[in-house]
Specification:
This protein is an alpha+beta fold and 65 residues long. The protein has one domain. Helices cover 23% and strands 38% of the residues. Strands 1-3-2 form a three-stranded antiparallel β-sheet, covered by helices on one side. The longest helix is centred in the middle third of the chain and has 15 residues, at 20-34. It comes from Streptomyces xiamenensis. This is Dihydroorotate dehydrogenase.
Length: 65
C-alpha cells in the first residue's frame, strides 16, 4: 500500500546581482534548517537563477484506539 511520496514546493528567484557564493549559502541554509532539497535550478542567460526546492510531506496516521 505504498503510494508515491507527496512533496511541497517553493520557488525562489535569485537575481543576477547575487553572487554564486551567496546563492550557495542561501540554498544550504534552506536545506539544513528547513529540510528543503533542490528539485531544479535554472540559470538564465542574464545570470539570474530560478530555483525550485521541495520537501516531503509526512502524513501522520490516526491512532486506532
Amino acid at each position: 500500500m505504498d503510494s508515491m511520496p507527496e512533496y511541497e514546493f517553493r520557488d525562489v528567484y535569485v537575481p543576477r546581482t547575487v553572487s554564486r557564493a551567496a546563492t550557495t549559502r542561501l540554498l544550504t541554509d534552506q536545506a539544513e534548517y528547513g529540510q528543503w532539497e533542490l528539485a531544479r535550478l535554472r540559470l538564465y542567460p542574464d545570470g539570474s537563477r530560478r530555483v525550485r526546492l521541495r520537501r516531503r510531506i509526512i502524513r501522520q496516521l490516526r491512532p486506532t484506539w
